[in-house]
Amino acid sequence: MKVITTIKDMQQEMKKEKQLGRSIGFVPTMGYLHEGHATLLGAARTENEVVALSIFVNPTQFGPNEDFDTYPRDFEHDERVAKEANVDYLFYPSVEEMYKPSRSVAITVTDRVDVLCGQKRPGHFDGVATVLTKLFHIVTPDRAYFGKKDAQQVAVVDGLIEDFNFPVELRAVDTVREVDGLAKSSRNVYLTDKEREEAPVLFKSLQSALQLLESGEKHVEIIKQAIRKEIEQYTSGKVDYIEVYTYPELKTIKQAAGKIIIALAVQFSKARLIDNVIVDVQGDN
């Protein structure tokens, strides 16, 4: 595995791989890698001849009151995970390498961002789109891998690739879950013992919603109310949002039809958990 810290060196290595006709699978991350990231790397390894991983805590996607400075970083751990996943190239640039002191062009995401988590994080997805535009140009991947747990991010990336005509195939990988169904997240460690016992209800409530759909219920408000009732009855968490939208367009609907996302966020004492399911109401997941 090669660890590369400069844009120029990474571009040169990727150019060599392209000249050899090798396919490149790319997993962009902010590091502090966990099993979810390892799953993305495994998918990239299976489907491509070359696997590139980037680790970059991107300052442009953090708001003024968010935790850029305290965001967890552990490069030695990340390097071990990358080697175990048979990564070929680990791109690990500094902020100074990725961003000049001033920029002449800015990217603004105008769609798919004013709902779900993006509603409370103005400018966040502008930063995501900016860094991915740079990384796609640097790495020139054939396929890029993202987790469905961050479904809004996947939707934004889908729009970015389509609008800017990147020759990149977006690969959305299923959410990695604990045995009891809880979506794996670094935030889970902040749950109390009691909250950890309650947390699987989030996914169970989404499964209940799918059962409602299968039974013929198409009214979005009824589906949302059923999810809320289950969460409020069986957990101490406070519902932040429960939403049903078209996917990946993230448009409001009153009746479930076509491909949709059912998404939720619940605030526990020290952890805010998100989860979702994406389903075609005709029966194709």
TrEMBL record:
Family classification: Belongs to the pantothenate synthetase family.
Residues holding ATP: 30-37, 147-150, 176, 184-187
Keyword ATP-binding in record: yes
Remarks, miscellaneous: The reaction proceeds by a bi uni uni bi ping pong mechanism.
Cellular compartments per GO CC: cytosol
InterPro entries: Pantoate_ligase, Pantoate_ligase_C, Rossmann-like_a/b/a_fold
Protein encoded by which gene: panC
Catalysis: reaction(s): (R)-pantoate + beta-alanine + ATP = (R)-pantothenate + AMP + diphosphate + H(+)
GO BP annotations, alphabetical order: pantothenate biosynthetic process
Domain of life: Bacteria
Pfam family, one: Pantoate_ligase
Listed name of the protein: Pantothenate synthetase
Annotated binding of beta-alanine, by residue: Q61
